[in-house]
Specification:
This protein has 9 helices and 6 strands; from the N terminus they run αβαβαβαβαβαβααα. It has 246 residues and is an alpha/beta fold. α5 packs parallel to α6 (170-183).
């Protein structure tokens, strides 16, 4: 009997594929943020454009865009900055962001709405050599979404910071995020982005680097950590606390 190697190979491959399908029936692949693959984009976080943001409180949004910028400092990510017509009413980037990234390329667009339409911006992103892109921008449905969709088309993995982007109302933000997700953009908040980049509290950067970041930019987590530290220092509990489950 002559063995048909082609037929045997086909059967083996089919069995392997069937087994893999049972293990992962959805076919979903979890693409996690990787600090060695990611670049941070700061898109039109301009002082004038902040007046358009109504889906977040002004104090909260200002803190969020500074927190978005600081992600790159904590994880030593390359950064590309861009502005749109900054000599007009849109205004410049906040001085704090410029100070955080004095050596990062700043692409001043004078007409292009979609930053990807600017050849200098495209070149700056490509020069980082990174394949994952973290975006925050004003406004969500224009500057963030247009760029995110272009990057997806170009083959990048795109992660849109929903707290680091803002627009004129919640409905517009929801529509923009839906549109981006439908195209394959991953929408995430600051806590998820930083923890996915970190992955393990024992890593470097890890707890030692992230606790000061959260203390500055994420009050609820800061209160949790400060409360634990205070309890550790004074070593006491109120009467009745020792009766509670833990």
């Amino acid at each position: 009997m002559k063995l048909n190697f082609a037929a045997v190979f086909t059967v083996v491959v089919s069995v392997a594929m069937a087994a893999e399908s049972k293990l992962n029936p959805s076919g979903f692949k979890y693409n996690r943020l990787d600090k060695d693959k990611a670049v941070l984009l700061i898109v039109d976080h301009q002082i004038g454009l902040m007046h358009l943001v109504r889906d977040q409180h002004p104090d909260v949004f200002r803190q969020n865009i500074l927190a978005h910028s600081a992600i790159a400092t904590v994880f030593d990510l390359p950064v590309v900055l861009t502005t749109s017509a900054e000599t007009g009413p849109n205004g410049p980037l906040p001085a704090e962001i410029i100070a955080q990234h004095p050596k990062a390329p700043l692409i001043r667009r004078n007409g292009e709405v979609n930053a990807w339409d600017n050849k200098d911006f495209r070149a700056a992103v490509a020069a980082t050599g990174r394949t994952q892109v973290i975006i925050g921008g004003i406004v969500t449905d224009v500057c963030t979404a247009f760029l995110a969709l272009s990057l997806i088309e170009e083959g990048y993995e795109v992660y849109a910071n929903t707290e680091g982007s803002g627009t004129m109302d919640q409905r517009l933000a929801d529509d923009a995020n839906d549109r981006m997700r439908a195209a394959g953009v991953q929408t995430m908040g600051l806590f998820a982005i930083t923890l996915e980049l970190m992955r393990d509290w024992r890593n470097k950067p890890g707890a030692e680097e992230l606790f000061p970041y959260f203390d500055k930019y994420m009050t609820p987590f800061s209160n949790l950590v400060r409360g634990h530290y205070a309890a550790h220092l004074n070593g006491t509990v109120f009467p009745g606390e020792d009766k509670l489950p833990y």
